TrEMBL record:
One of its GO terms (cellular component) is extracellular region. PROSITE patterns: IG_LIKE (PS50835). Residues 411-494, 499-588, 594-680, 683-774 form the Ig-like domain. InterPro entries: GBD_Hemicentin/VWA7, HMCN1-like_VWA, Ig-like_dom, Ig-like_dom_sf, Ig-like_fold, Ig_I-set, Ig_sub, Ig_sub2. Residues 1-19 form the signal peptide. This is Ig-like domain-containing protein. Keywords: Glycoprotein, Secreted, Signal. It is found in: Secreted. It comes from the Eukaryota.
Amino acid sequence: MNWLVSLTIVCLAVQCSTAVQYPEDVYSSLAFVFDTTGSMENDYLQLKSHAESIMNYVLTRNNTDIKHFVFVPFNDPDVGPVTETFDPKVIMHKLNQVLIRGGGDCPEMGITAVIRALKVVKPNSYIYVFTDAPPKDSHLVYDALELIQRKQSQVVVLRTVHDCISTDKSYENIASLGSGNVFDVNKEDVSKVLQFVKTSMDTNRVNLMSVNIPQKQLIPFPKKLNIDESIKNLQVSVSGLNSNIGVVNPVGKKMDEAHGLITDLDLKNVKIVNILEPIPGEWTLYITSESAHTIRACGISTKNFDFGFATSIPKNMTQTSHRPLKGAKNYILVNCPDVKKFVSCKIQDLSSDGTTEALPILDFGKNLLLCGPFIPKNNPFYVQVFGMNNNGNYFRRITKTSIIPNEPDAPYITTTQKAVGVVGGELHINCHVESLVPFTVTWESLNYPQQAWNFSQSSEIELVVRNVTFQHEGIFTCGAQNIAGYSESTTNVTIISKPTIAEGSDNVTLVLPEGGDYALKCTGQGIPSPLMIWLMNGSPVSSYSDHILVVNDFRRLIIFDIPLGDSNVYTCRAINEAGTVEKNYKIVVKGETPFPMIANESLIINELDDVLMNCPLTNMNHKWLKDGVNINDLVYKRADEQHFKQINRSLKIYELDELDNGVYTCMSSNETYTFHLRIAFAPLFIKYQPETMMISKNETVVFDCRARGFPKPRVYWRKLESAFPITPWTLKDTEYLEDKQVLKIHNIDWIHNGTYTCIVKNKLGSEKRRFELYVF
Ligand SMILES: *[C@@H]1O[C@H](CO)[C@@H](O)[C@H](O)[C@H]1NC(C)=O
Ligand SMILES: *[C@@H]1O[C@H](CO)[C@@H](O)[C@H](O)[C@H]1NC(C)=O
Ligand SMILES: *[C@@H]1O[C@H](CO)[C@@H](O)[C@H](O)[C@H]1NC(C)=O
Ligand SMILES: *[C@@H]1O[C@H](CO)[C@@H](O)[C@H](O)[C@H]1NC(C)=O
Ligand SMILES: *[C@@H]1O[C@H](CO)[C@@H](O)[C@H](O)[C@H]1NC(C)=O
Ligand SMILES: *[C@@H]1O[C@H](CO)[C@@H](O)[C@H](O)[C@H]1NC(C)=O
Ligand SMILES: *[C@@H]1O[C@H](CO)[C@@H](O)[C@H](O)[C@H]1NC(C)=O
Ligand SMILES: *[C@@H]1O[C@H](CO)[C@@H](O)[C@H](O)[C@H]1NC(C)=O
Ligand SMILES: *[C@@H]1O[C@H](CO)[C@@H](O)[C@H](O)[C@H]1NC(C)=O
Ligand SMILES: *[C@@H]1O[C@H](CO)[C@@H](O)[C@H](O)[C@H]1NC(C)=O
Ligand SMILES: *[C@@H]1O[C@H](CO)[C@@H](O)[C@H](O)[C@H]1NC(C)=O
């Protein structure tokens, strides 16, 4: 087989995160990392119920994008097992089953547990750590930070007061370099903190300022903060002993509780205040604290920026990596929607008290900014972007997490987990490879030859398979090799096919006799099996109405006792993920042809009524003929004076009955004029038939409901035991004869046992018969 394959490099617009997100991955996770060592015993029940209340909060929030839940218990030395689920009940169950035990010495394996959680969470997630001890695996902090950067996730540590004396700052590092917090809480503070935690769970949080002050500060040093109009909520938090937060708005007014400032949390070592709907402009913060402290300002805003690093000038975001290459020249590409002018692009070194370095900037097209090049120091840093937006307000943003330059890493690969191809169409599979150094990509699968391509930096690689067949179904692997290693990621490819209709999708016009039965067939095929629906003149038909029945999984639409008014278009539609196909049946119902015009005038008069026929001929010879015979010469009983009366040129007939049917003629010397007279009468059964019949299996039975009547009566058949009409498609071996006046059943079987009725009907009346069929 020779498949046409082509490779294209595509850029996807990447929002809010440097990690490429495919639609199926756009949701975030909520993770609980739970210390289960013996010392937690006292607090376990309470912490568990707090974890549950966070969970409940997330579930009752309607617009939540948290869909994925993770639970990681840790002890000493065991961590795990990790539970990952989309079902919150599973996590509740795990929380209830926690076994508190072990952990003789104080420090526990907390960082390892955080790393395990970070590995499975989706980008932009929330991780809550519940512990009462410092970690003993601090050497892994950088691994955790690497993951925090990649996952852009928030780690919040709730540390209950413990007996262990420790100077370990690992959790603080994770919190301050990531975008989280460490709360050292007494038992009675826990619920206050959790209340705060709940309200701070917002995917639209943006970072406005983050500063570490390594010493106490008793006289406040004013700090400026630019607030743009997109910021709905300003939150300032200070972690430090006995801190105080003063906030002054752009018009110089000091904010207090009476003027829109809300204190969210006020503990000995954490203070958090909140200002709703802050007015845009330059705000000032006055912060004091009796110890080294961290100041952080966040806002709720849908306007954030996206950034990436590259060692040579990137064309677009797909060609960047989420962190810079250590010791090399790096560029930063920033994408910030709604920007009029970039003012500066800075890196803020976190090891000093907020020192920033401005980078050369180069506008790079719409909303894009290229900064650099720069050679990063080995310290963690934030990227700060400052500019003016389209409304003329200044805005400032800093990265959600800190960034640490890195040695070249093995490529980081993201692929769609699932891809669907349609037979005969094109299959597109994307593979995004993030790498700061050149790499080689390979795509392969069982039924697909391996191919390799070289790239100099991060890229989106798209595999396109043309003329897709079912053989392309399977696992496709995208692998990438660079000097630091090899990684791969797979895509599960499913092939589907467009539906077809076995009976052909050509439109059909059917001319059907009034009162008949007809089955329209429509068998939809395709993978996956199509869903079938029937429409009448474009609207779905209900599966059963007075003359429509849909059976056999929508494969058949039966129209029974077709009324004249049923000249409609019936459409059967087969739908699956690959497409839709339709077949139209245009039904034309033909009424009984009116009897041929054999006279100058046709008359239909009800039985027992009188008729007056006026001859229009002026010189009429006063002779009326019936069927060519002078009526005065007729000899049978209807010919007497009481029934016929000739008045001048007219003929009157009294109390009509069936015998009066005929052609009446009047004449003059050179002309004739005729009337065709039909007498209408209610149906009458022609033949008597016993109403109870005993028929043995495999025999044949005939139910005779032949009837006279004018206009010709319609016949309606039912079987009392069935809600459905009797048609060859609803009751096997049935057949109608003589315009449905006779029902014949061949090969009598048990299902035929029962009571049958026929109703013969015209506009003058109806008659009904009942037959009981005993099958033995
Ligand atoms: C793919 O399909 C097109 C259109 O049906 C056909 O012209 C072409 O030859 C096919 N290519 C291969 C490689 O089968
Ligand atoms: C991104 O850059 C690559 C390499 O030049 C290019 O092939 C691709 O079309 C670009 N994508 C967009 C959206 O500009
Ligand atoms: C979520 O939606 C339900 C019903 O639509 C409503 O009763 C409830 O108040 C909503 N909850 C929140 C937090 O908005
Ligand atoms: C990719 O680069 C390697 C090493 O430079 C080279 O051996 C190989 O031929 C290249 N492959 C392609 C497809 O260009
Ligand atoms: C690929 O997806 C199909 C359908 O969703 C599933 O049945 C199959 O088990 C998957 N294969 C693998 C290897 O995951
Ligand atoms: C059937 O009729 C519909 C509506 O008139 C039309 O759109 C469609 O193209 C026809 N299908 C075929 C196969 O002719
Ligand atoms: C009556 O019908 C006959 C035969 O069709 C025709 O020749 C004649 O002209 C008709 N008479 C009148 C008055 O219409
Ligand atoms: C019959 O015709 C004559 C003459 O045209 C008229 O006087 C008489 O009233 C008519 N008879 C009837 C019953 O109409
Ligand atoms: C028949 O005769 C009458 C008079 O005798 C005349 O008025 C009429 O036109 C004639 N009709 C035909 C069809 O010749
Ligand atoms: C009825 O007919 C079927 C097939 O025609 C036959 O197999 C069966 O034996 C017959 N049963 C009786 C009772 O005659
Ligand atoms: C067969 O039909 C008759 C008439 O409706 C009914 O009385 C009888 O109960 C039926 N027998 C069985 C076994 O259903």
